[in-house]
Write a structure and sequence with these properties.
Distance between the termini: 26 Å
Helix content: 25-40%
Order of helices and strands: EEHHEHEEHHH
Strand order of the largest sheet: 3-5-4
Number of helices: 6
Strand content: 5-15%
Structural class: alpha+beta
Shape: globular
Radius of gyration: 18 Å
Number of strands: 5
Number of domains: 2
């Protein structure tokens, strides 16, 4: 997928600056407590909430458990995210039913001529945790081994 194929939402920060929003940007700057979560699980199992105040969010994360339903995991974005001070992610309750909507072009099929490598690269992007493209580059040889084992 080319950068020009990515769907982008424009939003304004509290300071009045225009900033782009994409699922990939949100994933790349997810909280460190979500380090081992793959992109697919991030899209399927997390949702975004606007903070009433970032101080209150941190306090809620550190509070003692209360009676009733257990609280869902709350994760702050890393500081590099344009909305780290105003938004955070919450893990959906276990057992939720959600249809995943990955915005953008369809993933290439393995059977399509000339897209074999792109197909496997797309699967790595979805199923292997990463923060930047270089995190995936070292997987090229292991993806070839995985294809050979599967065959």
């Amino acid at each position: 997928m080319k950068a020009s194929d990515e769907h982008v939402t424009l939003m304004t920060t509290e300071q009045g600056q225009v900033s782009k929003r994409t699922q990939c940007l949100d994933y790349m700057h997810r909280g460190m407590d979500l380090e081992s979560m793959c992109l697919y699980d991030f899209i399927a199992n997390m949702y975004e909430v606007h903070n009433q105040s970032s101080h209150a969010v941190v306090q809620n994360m550190e509070e003692e458990p209360r009676q009733g339903q257990p609280c869902n995991l709350c994760s702050l974005y890393q500081e590099a995210h344009p909305f780290h001070a105003t938004c955070h992610r919450i893990n959906k309750t276990e057992g939720h039913s959600m249809l995943v909507n990955i915005i953008g072009v369809w993933l290439p099929r393995e059977s399509e001529t000339g897209t074999h490598n792109l197909h496997y690269a797309s699967l790595l992007v979805l199923w292997k945790p990463w923060h930047q493209q270089s995190d995936l580059k070292g997987c090229q040889s292991s993806s070839t081994k995985n294809r050979q084992i599967k065959s």
